[in-house]
Write a structure and sequence with these properties.
The complex is a heterotrimer of chains A (293), B (302) and C (283).
Chain A (H helix, E strand, L loop, with lengths): L34 E14 L2 E14 L3 E5 L6 H9 L6 E6 L2 E2 L8 E4 L11 H12 L3 H14 L15 H13 L5 E5 L7 H17 L3 E5 L3 H7 L2 E6 L4 E7 L14 H23 L2
Helix pairs in contact in A: 2-3, 2-4, 3-4, 6-7
Chain B lengths: L20 E3 L2 E3 L5 H43 L9 H10 L1 H35 L1 H16 L6 H8 L4 H24 L3 H9 L4 H38 L5 H10 L3 H32 L8
Antiparallel strand pairs in B: 1-2
Helix pairs in contact in B: 2-10, 3-4, 3-6, 3-8, 3-9, 3-10, 5-6, 6-8, 8-9, 8-10, 9-10
Chain C lengths: L10 H48 L8 H10 L1 H35 L1 H16 L6 H8 L3 H25 L3 H9 L4 H39 L4 H10 L3 H32 L8
Classes of the chains: A alpha/beta (293), B mainly alpha (302), C mainly alpha (283).
């Protein structure tokens, strides 16, 4: 059932932002079998005060275009570090990372959108102004971008809130704005670092469904870091399980469920089996470290 | 919970269905809705606030009057040239009004100019130093030295170089006022949320963009605090320099009264100085409120 | 014989490789920072002395004496300087002590009553805005030219920041710790001595540091006005008699004195906070 072998070309997905209604058919991922993100033998080592941290060791992984990949692992296993390396925020100690064929050497690529756990909205800007920030920095003319920003506001279901300030919005709402901001310059890759980690369980569930809906509308390559196994299995095509100290890829688990995902899939046997497998992998880590290896 | 058959239509969607209970064999349903409870609570809080406002301000006025009366009683035991009471102070103020008002204008101008210069310098220098870790490292001991030594001690030296006019007061006021603004600008420019910094880096923002769109605005609350410190220090500097170079300003008027043993005039000038100090401080507070409100940076009143 | 398998670097090898690299990088960065700091600071000191010498060349020596002339005055007038230093030091210390004790004591009292704090708050704010040094002439008139007026001014100026910091510090209590003690049935006094005092320490010691600088300021200004004894008085007198090298030499001594007082206060603050593990974590 490995869809990655299929080579049929699908028509480019119609998105809401093109002004056309989505056809309801989304191209299976693997159909666009080009590699969006390629990591080869990535090592990351750094000194933090007294401690030395071997954060990433020999990470090699390919993420295909329009694939949704999650990275899970216990705290400190290096998943955020890997994401930051892909974003170009951290230089790697060894190895290379390429996005869309181009090497990542320093931050500032316009094909990446980044969403943080803390939403990082500027509290002196309204929601709309926050969404427009990347465009301002890139020097794009405001007219052109404002229409798109408003479209995105509608997409994340926050229209009506353009002139609200972040402190007037709830956590979930702030993250919606953050997602809209990450999409405003139409990046091909979306990197998300535990974006729903600071939200309560109910809101997190809602946001997962919202994210799926948004992703259907604007399909991008997504790398999603989380510690929540259910969330990872629910959202992704594949889940990368990392182990800590030093951070390596333990295994990559396929999620054999079709997109679009719905709430009912949470109870399907495939889903339960996937989450079970993920849990087993993480438990195996714990026992391994107890052996002292 | 039992639902009554005929619900009043005014009940809000969140109405708690009243629990009925038996009283004397009849069913009694208290008809209280969430909205009513909310309104009752708001009214109670408002009442309490109003009451507190009255009692607190009454107490403050009482303290003020008590101090005034205490001063009067204490001063009555002494000669008015040693310790004038409130009435003699007022008389002294009126008597020397021309002198005091002229001095007040001069002092105000000196404070304003010194403050403005100091704030400007503090912002510029603070911005330069704040974004450069190397500069901070190099300058650190000098900044500590600058903070530790009261710059007002330089007054005689400055007066010697710059004379007895307005200039030495403005210069010393600027030198004193620059530090709080400098320090707070540095802190504010650095203390930016890690994720916001990452955001700007990922977007490939130039240093100028990061500075003006992120660091500077983020630093505004700190800078405003620095402004408040700066105006207080500027006022103190100007007064001390006027003591030393007594020709212009309220400090000079005080020294004149001091030399002539006209203590009511000294007190009168002090009163004028107090008024000026307060006016300057509250002007800066007003600026702070306006600026923070414009940028939506004010903290909610808890 | 079987062909040798390709040898993969073991985990330990990789670790050591990266560790050595990072440690070397860090050492290099630190060394460079030290050199830059030393160089930069030397440049600044040299520039300062250079500017001073240049100014001395431009202005007549009666306005700006050269560094050398200052040094000579420092040596020849050491007697006068030594004579005037103890009074100033005494004023600073006594003023600091008086102001601190009163400030902390009154602050602790006011902090006990929410009502008192709210009523007095506008007066505290006002006292911040009013230049208390302006009281110098009045204090000298009332209390004479002796030690008292100067100590009083120093204490008065040192008092207010401490009062404010003590009140703020005692208010700033970790709510959960407070609830814990309350649930254990602790008395108000117990809560005060076991919790509030420690929560207040950082702010109180910061206030003490400010008070030290304020006390120095107060002593100097009072001496400006009274002009009879002490380093501040010496400054004013030498300004009036145009004994400028002496003026500059006095400035040097005064700067050294003020800086020492500050360093002492900072050292005390660090020691006290360290003793109770209250030091703010390094960023």
């Amino acid at each position: 059932m490995d869809r990655s072998e299929s080579v049929t070309q699908a028509p480019p997905a119609a998105t809401i932002l093109d002004g056309r209604e989505p056809s309801g058919q989304r191209p299976p991922v693997g159909a666009a079998s080009r590699v969006a993100i390629r990591c080869r033998d990535v090592h990351k080592f750094y000194l933090a005060g007294e401690r030395s941290v071997y954060a990433l060791k020999g990470i090699s992984v390919d993420v295909r275009e329009r694939e949704f990949v999650s990275i899970v692992g216990k705290s400190g296993c290096g998943k955020s570090t890997l994401l930051h390396c892909i974003a170009g925020l951290l230089p790697v100690s060894h190895g290379d990372i390429a996005i869309g064929g181009e090497q990542v050497s320093k931050p500032g690529r316009r094909d990446i959108g980044l969403v943080f756990q803390t939403s990082a909205l500027l509290r002196w800007r309204t929601a709309l102004e926050n969404i427009l920030l990347p465009a301002e920095i890139f020097g794009l003319p405001r007219q052109q971008v404002e229409a798109r920003a408003r479209q995105l506001l509608r997409l994340v279901e926050m229209d009506g809130f353009e002139h609200q300030y972040p402190n007037q919005l709830s956590g979930g709402m702030q993250q919606r704005i953050a997602i809209a901001r990450a999409l405003v310059h139409d990046p091909s890759v979306l990197l998300m670092d535990e974006p729903f980690g600071a939200l309560d369980a109910q809101t997190r569930e809602t946001m997962n469904l919202e994210l799926m809906r948004i992703w259907e509308a604007t399909p991008k390559t997504v790398v999603f870091v989380t510690h929540d196994l259910q969330e990872a299995a629910f959202l992704s095509n594949r889940v990368i399980v990392m182990s800590a100290r030093p951070g390596t890829i333990q295994e990559i688990v396929d999620v054999p469920l079709p997109h679009p995902r719905g709430r009912d899939m949470l109870y399907s046997p495939e889903f339960v089996a996937t989450v079970k497998r993920l849990r087993e992998l993480l438990s195996a880590q714990r026992e391994g470290s107890r052996d002292g290896t | 919970m039992a639902q009554t058959a005929d619900r009043p239509s005014s009940m809000s969607t969140y109405a708690v269905a009243p629990a009925s209970h038996l009283v004397d064999g009849r069913e009694v349903t208290p008809a209280i809705t969430r909205r009513e409870l909310e309104e009752r609570e708001i009214r109670a809080v408002r009442e309490r606030r109003r009451r507190e406002l009255i009692t607190h301000n009454a107490a403050r006025v009482a303290v003020f009057i008590a101090v005034l009366v205490g001063w009067h009683l204490l001063a009555a035991r002494y000669d008015s040239n040693l310790l004038p009471g409130p009435l003699q102070t007022y008389a002294g103020l009126v008597r020397s009004w021309k002198l005091i008002s002229a001095g007040a204008v001069a002092t105000l101008v000196e404070i304003g100019l010194g403050f403005g210069l100091g704030v400007f310098g503090g912002l510029v220098l603070g911005s330069i130093i704040g974004v450069s870790k190397t500069m901070q490292g190099v300058l650190h001991p000098f900044l500590v030295l600058y903070q530790a030594v009261p710059k007002t001690g330089l007054a005689p030296m400055i007066v010697l170089i710059l004379g007895f006019g307005i200039l030495p007061k403005v210069v010393l006021a600027a030198m004193t006022a620059v530090f709080p603004v400098l320090e707070n600008t540095i802190i504010g420019v650095q203390r930016v949320e890690e994720d916001s910094q990452r955001l700007f880096r990922v977007l490939g923002a130039s240093p100028a963009q990061t500075y003006f769109k992120l660091r500077l605005i983020n630093a505004l609350p700190y800078i405003m605090t620095g402004l408040r410190g700066a105006i207080v220090l500027a006022t103190v500097s100007v007064v001390v320099t006027e003591f030393v170079a007594g020709r212009i300003g309220l400090g000079a008027v005080m020294m004149t009264g001091y030399a002539q043993l006209d203590t009511p005039m000294v007190f009168g000038a002090l009163l004028a100085l107090t008024a000026i100090g307060l006016a300057c401080y509250f002007t800066v507070c007003l600026i702070e409120t306006l600026v923070l409100r414009w940028f939506n940076l004010e903290l909610p009143a808890s | 014989m079987a062909p040798e398998a390709l040898v993969q670097p073991s985990d330990a090898d990789l670790y050591r490789h990266f560790y050595d690299h990072e440690v070397r990088e860090q050492a290099r960065r630190r060394r460079r920072a030290r050199i830059v700091n030393l160089l930069g600071r030397s440049v600044i000191v040299a520039a300062f002395l250079g500017l001073w010498t240049a100014a001395a060349a431009v202005y007549p020596p009666i306005i700006v004496p050269s560094p050398l002339a200052t040094w000579r005055a420092l040596v020849t007038e050491i007697g006068t300087l030594a004579q005037n230093t103890p009074p100033t030091l005494l004023e600073i210390v006594l003023g600091f002590l008086a102001g601190s004790v009163l400030g902390i004591g009154l602050g602790a009292l006011v902090a006990q009553s929410r009502w008192a704090e709210i009523v007095l708050r506008p007066y505290l704010v006002v006292s911040q805005a009013v230049p208390k040094v302006a009281l110098a002439p009045i204090l000298v008139i009332l209390l004479g030219y002796g030690l008292t007026s100067k100590v009083t001014l120093a204490a008065l100026i040192a008092f207010f920041p401490l009062l404010e910091n003590t009140i703020a510090g005692l208010r700033r209590v970790d709510l959960d710790s407070l609830r814990l003690l309350q649930s254990l049935g602790a008395t108000r006094w117990q809560i005060f001595t076991k919790l509030r005092v420690f929560c207040a320490l950082p702010l109180v010691f910061a206030g003490l540091r400010i008070a030290a600088v304020m006390a120095t300021l107060g002593a100097i200004v009072a001496e400006f006005v009274a002009g009879n004894r002490g380093l501040g008085a010496l400054l004013v007198v030498s300004m009036g008699t145009f004994s400028t090298p002496l003026l500059y030499a006095t400035m040097v001594v005064l700067t050294a004195l003020a800086f020492s007082v500050y360093l002492l206060a900072t050292w005390l603050e660090r020691k006290a906070l360290h003793r109770y593990n209250l030091a703010a974590p390094r960023a």
